[in-house]
């Protein structure tokens, strides 16, 4: 396998002290009405905003997702090494941003991030930062995976439970589909927890800031589409052993009449798996990225 294996870190707890400039006192989220349909909970705690921006290591091109009232934007704009672009779907927020940060005009895109062609906005690599709406955070991460060749770093605030899941190591009860798919390409750090009182309106759950840093892996050394299918299929039936949860995949890979390698000639291939396929008696949360790759390769007879 090419590259270094991904790393993940358990929650670190306290928010780090920030050394970024004092907040712009103009900022007030009351100027924009939070919209439940967009999953908006505006961050109002300036110390938290400073700490999030300080967590970003990358300089050069940076894309902020969902700036809202500009609580992160104000600090990003103060760094001359950051070439900032922002994407915001809410028209009311766009008006607010243009009024308070007129220099954003040529680099502010009123659009749905999930529908954007990021390669057109950035011909080369760029970092991603933002307070991601809880209701679309998973979709954002799948888009990050699509552009992993261009995105070396992501710093974001998401629901605490999701953050813990993404950073979880194999063997953890919270380790799941996105844990494996993201850790295949990124090192994931749980940076700090943010309480409900830092937002307007306050969410019903705690939030957390995580950092994703692209690892050295350039290839999975297996059929990537099959890898994703194996991961999703096994975790969707996580209480079953891999032997049982893989049956739908085997039915596709080895339809009737082609299953001789699984047992006696003419067998369906679903009741007797070949000895060279590993981890059949394990459950998906026990397997690392490397072991899922090994399993995928074995299903292809590699």
Question: What does this entry show, briefly?
Answer:
By secondary structure, this protein is of the alpha/beta class. It has eleven helices and nine strands. Helices cover 29% and strands 16% of the residues.
Radius of gyration from the alpha-carbon trace, in angstroms: 22 Å
Q: What is the third-level CATH name, the topology of the largest domain?
A: Rossmann fold
Q: What number of domains?
A: 2
Q: How much strand content do the residues show? A: 15-25%
Q: What structural class do you assign from the helix and strand content?
A: alpha/beta
The CATH C-level name of the largest domain is Alpha Beta
The appropriate CATH architecture of the largest domain is 3-Layer(aba) Sandwich
Spatial strand arrangement across the major sheet: 4-3-2-5-6-9-7
Principal-axis shape equals elongated
- Which segments are poorly predicted (pLDDT under 50) over 5 or more consecutive residues? 1-30, 257-271
The overall strand count is 9
Provide the CATH superfamily of the largest domain.
Vaccinia Virus protein VP39
State mean pLDDT (0 to 100 scale).
Answer: 85
In whole angstroms, the N-to-C terminal distance is: 13 Å
Oligomer: single chain
- Largest β sheet strand count, sense and barrel closure: 7 strands, mixed
Tally of individual helices: 11
Helix content: 25-40%
Features:
elongated, 302 residues, 11 helices, 7-stranded mixed sheet, alpha/beta, two-stranded antiparallel ribbon, Helicase, Ruva Protein, domain 3, 29% helix, 16% strand, 2 domains, Rossmann fold, disordered N terminus, single chain
């Amino acid at each position: 396998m090419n590259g270094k294996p991904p790393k993940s870190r358990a929650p670190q707890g306290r928010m780090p002290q920030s050394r970024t400039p004092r907040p712009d006192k103009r900022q007030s989220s009351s100027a924009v009405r939070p919209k439940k349909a967009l999953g908006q909970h505006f961050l109002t705690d300036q110390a938290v905003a400073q700490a999030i921006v300080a967590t970003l290591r990358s300089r050069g091109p940076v894309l902020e997702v969902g700036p809202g009232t500009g609580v992160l934007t104000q600090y990003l704009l103060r760094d001359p090494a950051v070439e900032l672009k922002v994407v915001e779907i809410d028209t009311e927020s766009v008006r607010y941003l243009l009024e308070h940060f007129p220099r954003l005009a040529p680099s502010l895109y009123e659009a749905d991030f999930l529908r954007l062609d990021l390669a057109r906005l950035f011909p080369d690599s760029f970092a991603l930062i933002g307070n991601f709406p809880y209701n679309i955070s998973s979709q954002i991460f799948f888009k990050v995976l699509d552009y992993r060749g261009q995105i070396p770093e992501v710093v974001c605030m998401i629901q605490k439970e999701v953050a813990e899941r993404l950073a979880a190591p194999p063997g953890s009860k919270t380790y799941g589909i996105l844990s494996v798919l993201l850790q295949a390409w990124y090192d994931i750090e749980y940076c700090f927890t943010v309480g409900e009182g830092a937002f307007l309106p306050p969410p019903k759950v705690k939030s957390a800031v995580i950092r994703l840093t692209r690892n050295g892996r350039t290839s999975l050394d297996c059929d990537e589409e099959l890898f994703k299918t194996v991961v999703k299929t096994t975790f969707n039936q996580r209480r079953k052993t891999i032997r049982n949860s893989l049956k739908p995949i085997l039915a596709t890979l080895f339809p009737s009449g082609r299953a001789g390698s699984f047992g006696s000639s003419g067998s369906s291939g679903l009741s007797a798996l070949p000895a060279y396929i590993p981890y059949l008696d394990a459950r998906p949360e026990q397997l690392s990225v490397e072991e899922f790759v090994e399993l995928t390769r074995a299903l292809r007879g590699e």
